[in-house]
Design a protein that fits this description.
Length: 362
C-alpha cells in the first residue's frame, strides 16, 4: 500500500474503509439522524465542549469561513495571529468579507510570539475576535492554545477566540470550554483518518449570541439555519453521508484505542520520526518543544532538489510526502504522522528517505 505521508487525506482506518461500503440512506430519515447524533456525541470529548457541534459539508476551509461570517459585521476589527500559510489564509477570508484585519506574522517554523500578541491585543482593545491555528501545518508547529486563550481572555475580555485546529484535533488534547475558546474547526480528512468532505465546528454559547445579528454576508454556512436543522440531527442541505459513515467508524476505532492513548501514540510517532531524521544527520525545522504531534518538517540538505527528492520518493519508494509552502518552498519537506499511522509506517518512511537521499547524492 502507498505510504501516504501528507497532511490529509490520510490513510483511512480499516473500519472507516469498510463503512464506505454501507448502503446509502436518506438524509431525511431516522437512520441519518441517528448517525448525525452519534458522530456529534463521539466528537464531543475531542473538542472538550458541551456547546454545539455542527457538521458542515465542505473541506476545512469552509469551517474557517463559517467561523468568520457568522459572528461579525463588515468592518469589524479582527486580529490574525499567523505563523504560516493557513493563518494567512484565515486573515484573507476575513478580509474577503470586509473585516478590518490586523495581521501579525511570525516566521514559519516558529510559533505565535505571545509577547508580541500581548502588545497587539493591548493596542487593539476594540477587537471583535482573534484568530490562531492550533497546529500551523505549513510550519509544522503547535501553538500553545491554552496560554494564548488565557492571554486573549485577559487582554480582550469581549473578543471571541477562534481556533483553527484542522490538522491536529483528534491527535492532541483540546479543552475548548475550560480554555475559554469560542470557535474550533477541524476537517475529517486529517487526524480522524476519515474520508474528506466534512468540516466539524464547535461554537461557544458566547459566540452563539452573536449569530443572529451578525451582518456579514452568508448563505451556505449560515448557522441560523444550520442550527435549526442540527436540533433535529439534520443539515439544511445534503450532507456527505458517505464521509459520515466513515467518520463514525473512525471515531469508534479511536474510542476503542482511548483518547489518551491516541494522543500518546501521536507523540511517540513524532518523536520516533524526529529521532530517525537526526540519526540520518538531517536537520529538523523546529525544536522539540514546539513540534506538532501530527507533522514534521526537515530541512532539505544542501545540493538536493526538493522536487526531485519528492518525485523519487513517490515513483520508486511509493512514499508521498509534502513540500514546503510559501517561503519554505524548496527548503523543507514535510512528513505527516496523523491519524491511522503506526510505528512501522514511520520506519518505512525513514528507510525511504535515507535510501532515496543516498541515491540522489550518488
Ligand atoms: C491548519 C490548516 N488550516 C486549514 C487547512 C485547509 O483545510 P482544507 O484543505 O480541508 O480546506 C489545512 C489543510 O491542510 C490546515 O492544515
Amino acid at each position: 500500500m502507498t505510504n501516504l505521508r501528507i497532511a490529509g487525506p490520510t490513510p483511512l482506518y480499516s473500519s472507516s474503509y469498510k463503512a464506505l461500503q454501507k448502503e446509502m440512506i436518506t438524509h431525511r430519515g431516522s437512520a441519518y439522524e441517528k448517525l448525525h447524533a452519534s458522530v456529534v456525541k463521539k466528537l464531543r470529548p475531542f473538542f472538550g465542549t458541551e456547546s454545539d457541534i455542527y457538521l458542515l459539508t465542505s473541506s476545512g476551509t469552509g469551517g474557517m469561513e463559517a467561523l468568520i461570517v457568522n459572528f461579525h459585521n463588515p468592518t469589524d476589527l479582527i486580529l490574525s495571529f499567523s505563523c504560516g500559510g493557513f493563518g494567512d489564509r484565515w486573515a484573507s477570508i476575513a478580509e474577503a468579507y470586509d473585516a478590518d484585519v490586523v495581521r501579525t506574522r511570525d516566521r514559519m517554523g516558529t510559533t505565535v510570539d505571545l509577547d508580541n500578541a500581548r502588545q497587539v491585543m493591548e493596542a487593539n482593545p476594540s477587537a471583535a475576535s482573534v484568530l490562531i491555528q492550533y497546529c500551523e501545518t505549513s510550519g509544522t508547529v503547535l501553538n500553545d492554545i491554552k496560554e494564548f486563550s488565557r492571554l486573549a481572555r485577559t487582554m480582550l475580555p469581549n473578543a471571541l477566540i477562534l481556533v483553527d485546529a484542522i490538522s491536529v484535533l483528534g491527535a492532541a488534547p483540546m479543552k475548548m470550554d475550560e480554555w475559554g475558546i469560542d470557535g474550533v474547526v477541524t476537517g475529517s480528512q486529517k487526524a480522524w483518518s476519515a474520508p474528506s468532505g466534512l468540516a466539524m465546528i464547535a461554537v461557544s454559547a458566547r459566540a452563539k449570541l452573536k449569530i443572529e445579528n451578525a451582518r456579514m454576508s452568508r448563505f451556505y454556512f449560515d448557522l441560523r439555519l444550520i442550527d435549526r436543522y442540527a436540533k433535529r440531527n439534520q443539515t439544511p442541505t445534503t450532507p456527505a453521508v458517505g464521509s459520515l459513515f466513515g467518520l463514525e467508524a473512525a471515531l469508534n476505532t479511536m474510542e476503542r484505542e482511548g483518547l489518551k492513548n491516541v494522543f500518546q501514540r501521536h507523540l511517540q510517532l513524532r518523536d520516533q520520526f524526529r529521532a530517525g531524521v537526526e540519526k540520518m544527520g538531517l536537520k529538523l525545522l523546529c525544536p522539540a518543544d514546539v513540534a506538532s504531534p501530527t507533522i514534521t518538517a526537515l530541512v532539505v540538505p544542501e545540493g538536493i532538489d526538493a522536487k526531485a527528492w519528492s518525485q523519487l520518493l513517490r515513483e520508486k519508494y511509493d512514499t508521498i510526502i509534502s513540500g514546503g509552502k510559501k517561503e519554505l518552498e524548496g527548503k523543507v519537506i514535510r512528513v505527516a504522522h496523523m491519524g491511522n499511522v503506526t510505528s512501522e509506517d514511520i520506519d518505512l518512511t525513514l528507510k525511504a528517505l535515507e535510501a532515496s537521499l543516498k541515491e540522489l547524492k550518488e
